[in-house]
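Pair request: fold both.
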Amino acid sequence: GVIRSSLPRIPLVPKYSAIDSELIRVNVIKSFMRIQRMLKRALKLNTYSIASQGAVLITGVLFAVILSRLVSVTDYGLLTSFISFVVFITILSDMGLRTTATKYVGDAFFSKKSDLWKYITQLTTLRFILVISMGIAVFLLAEPLSRTILHDAQYAFVFQFTGIVSIIYSAMHFFEGLVSAANRYEYTFAGSAITNVGRLVLPIIAVMFISPTAEWAIAGVAGGYLLGAVSYSVFFRRVYGFKFEWSGGLGEEMKRYAIYAALIGWSVAFFSYFDTVLLNAFLSPDRVALYKAAQQVLIGVVSLAPISYFVIFTFFVELEANKKRKEQVEAYAQALKYGLVFFIPVSVMMFVLSSEIIGFLFLPTYAASARALQAFAALPAFYFLFNVNMNALFARGEIRPAAGLYILAAILSVALNVFLIPIFGFVGSAITYSAAFIAPTIISIPLLMQRLSLGINLRALVKPFLASAVATASVLFVKSQITGNELLLIILFPAVCAAVYLALLDDDDRRVLKALVELFRGKERAA
């Protein structure tokens, strides 16, 4: 058969013997088959993970749209701040243990090491000691925290709920990591659906049938997280069973990894979620609500990623455990290509249609959120690159450079927020959030290129920038001719991008599409 250009190129040397030519042909076919198997395996895992992200996207957007209409702007600000506080406490108390557990439990699971249950037992115990201690401290200090951060002791209930729910959320978060470590993404999809549907439905029921206040909305969200914690604990038992093994230490290598993972965890807490603490300290809850509305759109957008960040991590862990470095390089190159093909147009769309997106999703009282959304617009492509690059480094055990980049992001986040929020308000925090991701991402790109012996393929950037330019011209033209049709413009932009991509498919694109078709056909036959 014909060997397509997407396969590894063999230099043509005229003096090959017939035996040499046959060996080359066999090696190329083996390489093609290896790439196809890796691609199908990655796509299968990615399909389940993308389905999980789809549950996050749909329920997250519905949560923002519906709850912002059912409660006041101030109560919506308190509700979304509570969610950020819970995640902040969870990551702060985690000390990198989820990342450490995913790395070493996954490695032990796939390489069938006898240390599997020792890792699970000791890391799980330590994780819960930490979060329970911190949760109790937050609950007991609820009133002074409320006076300091929210400027009013009457909001103490926000921190009382935060102390309790952070323990529940941590259980869900940790068991999800262990299930994902085994690449059982059918369970993470189910758990994500249960958690996010519960987090959406229960607060709506609470505010509609009991009281449209922040207290009852928060209680509903807590119920959703409880459903998720129970679900993931059940899935954990199905994947691993149950065993208790405490004997023996964790080893110096794991301890070093855990120290760097803890530094990363604290950095993530500060550069991703501490902005809400600072916003509340500088601004009123109703201004925080405007910021959180734009941020919810951003979270929805990055949840649309065609390549799951966490699949990169667990898939790389599996390949690392089996010493398959070539497959790692191929998987990374494909993730980079198709992630940027998706996110570059998304970034441009967020900037060009910020007012239309906010106007379509939220009430007119949230119109000012469009300015924050424009400040977020540069972020999606960099957010994708940052997460893929960091997860690739984690999986390969190269955690020290990753820790340095996370610490840089945390320092930038805190420093810029303190400087910009007093000047630009909530838009200043949006600028900071973007900058805190973009700076370390730029540094990480040559680092990963060197580690994986890859070059930057500038040609791969031509299509997304071309599609973005054509789509921008199209929506601006339609916008000048038709007014007041936000949904039309929001649909038109990705439709034009898709048309440009279809016109420019290459052999590599066709290979991926073929693997996807075969994957779904296989599922249909299985059904």
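--- second member of the pair ---
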Amino acid sequence: MITIFTARKIVTMNPANPEAVAVAVRDGRILCVGSLQECLSWGEAEVDERFAAHVLVPGFVEAHGHTMDSASELMPFVGYYPYPLSDGSSTPAIRSYEELIDRLKAEDATLPPGEPLVANGFDPIYFPQLPRLSKRELDQVSTTRPVFVRHASGHLATVNTALLEADGITKDSPTPGVGRDPDGELSGELQEAPAMMLAKGAFTKMMAASAGAEPIRIHAAMCRNAGVTTSTELVGMLLIDAGQIQVWRDTVDDPAFPARMVLYNLPTMPGSTADYAAVADAAVKLREIESDKLRAPGIKLVADGSIQGWTAVMLEPGYYTGEDHGLLLFSPEDLLAAVRAFHARKLNVHCHCNGNATGQVFVDAIEEVLRTDAWLDHRHVLQHSQTTTAAQYRKMGRLGICANIFTNHIWYWGDQHYEQTMGPERARGMWACRTALENRVPLSFHSDSGVTPIGHRMTMWCAVNRVTPSGRVLGEYERITPYEALHAATIGGAFQLHMDHEIGSIEAGKFADFAVLDASPLDVEPMAIRDIGVWGTVVGGQVFEAAHSGAS
């Protein structure tokens, strides 16, 4: 049976057929895009007019997300900005240490004795006038219960004295990233996964909260609310925990599941090494689980930390203020070995590189493997790409390396990067979308969901306007147009996932995946892009209405 969806406007992102008012769908795929008469010419059809007052755009493609965003619902969320939840509501903002301590004390009162208190989403960088969050503040919550507060970046945590003592973490610990104060005593900050994993009970609780079907379903509901029809889990664990494979298959392939999911799996936990050839063979075998809605095309490498945590690795002149804790999680030799093994088996590699020194190591590794294995369509991706230099973009363009830029930082941390981490000049050149495009670097955006809320209205808004909460226009010459932004949020993301022949535009033969919006991002004032309403999505011709209760 053919179903024809009509709309006020359909923005296709197909340059040969840019706009339409009707799209015909058969068996989950697009049959025709054009006028109602053109769609009816394919044969008997049912005309669905429910979107007559709405605009259809290609379903947004989130090429760097995490089902760990479900932690905003499954554990206390203590972020500086509200976080939209799957039911359309949002978390309250935590704007002071006092509010943080009160929120954690309230949670402490609900837990049984001995169970660690794990909270998520706080970031001390928003409080430069205060001492950096430490065990001293968290000891006010409890002197007996372990307390673990994961920072918004996911790369750091702050813990209390009770946790340090319970897990035997001392000032003599040899693990990199165990924070110390100027006197050499433990500060309570744990930087990067190896150090955070020392908090055994809390880390186990956090990982358990991210396992199973529920976090995947919560993430998909957040996607639906934001118009995202294809999302990624960019810290897939299927190569580390094969027991998760069947959970993913059963959950995502359920007809009621409202999104396509693409997994980029870790070869090993960040900060450790592996037999990369054996892992590559296992990753190739994972393709046997793939379906129309579930894919596992590649590998995720995590090569450094976060800029706002001072753990990303920067080229000269380094950080503007603060103590440089930059830590490469791969040696250059080990990163090259990993890239070589995965590239040789035609596995798409996405590498987390917040610092431009780290990005240089990754770009150099790609250049080296291309000397011996000329996979011309590799589409390897430098993820985050926040501090990538113009020289690096020129080289990336020549080598075919893609950039997935974390544009949301312009709003969430732009002022902090200007004032604290990077300084004025380099902050203006961060998230350099215009430079990337001018050097023919394939471009997409991401929310790093869990770090910031999933949704491309915001990533596009940031790339087009580059406005910070203080009203500062941060890097006006790196602005791009709304069309370029929509391209990055749809076909650009699809390209980086090696799926642009299936998703990312509304054209015949592709999956019938649409975001149903109240207005086109190409028609509203640029400053209004993030405020466009989302009615819901269509995935494979199946309609999913968003939860609207106060959704942001």
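Observation on the second member. The chain has a mean pLDDT of 96.
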